[in-house]
Design goal:
Blueprint lengths: L4 E5 L3 H13 L3 E6 L2 H11 L3 E4 L9 H10 L5 E5 L4 H9 L4 E4 L4 H49 L3 H15 L3 H15 L1
Parallel strand pairs: 1-2, 1-3, 3-4, 4-5
Amino acid sequence: MAQTRLIIVDDDSIIRLDLRDLLTQMGYQVAGEAPDAQTAITLARDLRPDLVIMDIRMPGDLDGIDAAATLTQEQVAPVLLLTAFSDPELVRRATEAGVVGYLLKPFSEGELRPAIEVTLARFREFQTLAQETHDLREQLETRKLVERAKGVLMAQFNLTEAEAFRRIQKASMDTRRPMKAIAEAILLTSQVSA
């Protein structure tokens, strides 16, 4: 099984060093490190890690939550925030940014590993749900197009609904093209000839 690749983001180089040593001992691969949020975004886009472990408060215009929002929106990697701050406003912002995990400093190895593993598992679940949602939308779109194309064929050739569907299905099999593409072609042809 491949090692989990991580990026560590903290403005304190000693904390990054300690965290790198701890994570390496735990069996994780530290693929990169960054001292600020903007560098973290660039590094994560380039390296595509499995997880970004990030502090909230850092120098520069962006904080860890801003970076997490960008990485989440672009679906680069999940973010586990490690921070000394638990104020409700930061937690709210982190939640809105799509942060999957939030762990307060100081933490132990016994707390870090479960936080990492739960964050990774939740992110995989989110990805699965997103893919299922996309697939369902595609199926719905295909169904709508096929229904409209059946209506065109029924009107144009005086077919029953089942006969119209069989024509679309047969054309799909004969041409080895999806039924959606056949339905789109039927609808386009009916618009041009109208």
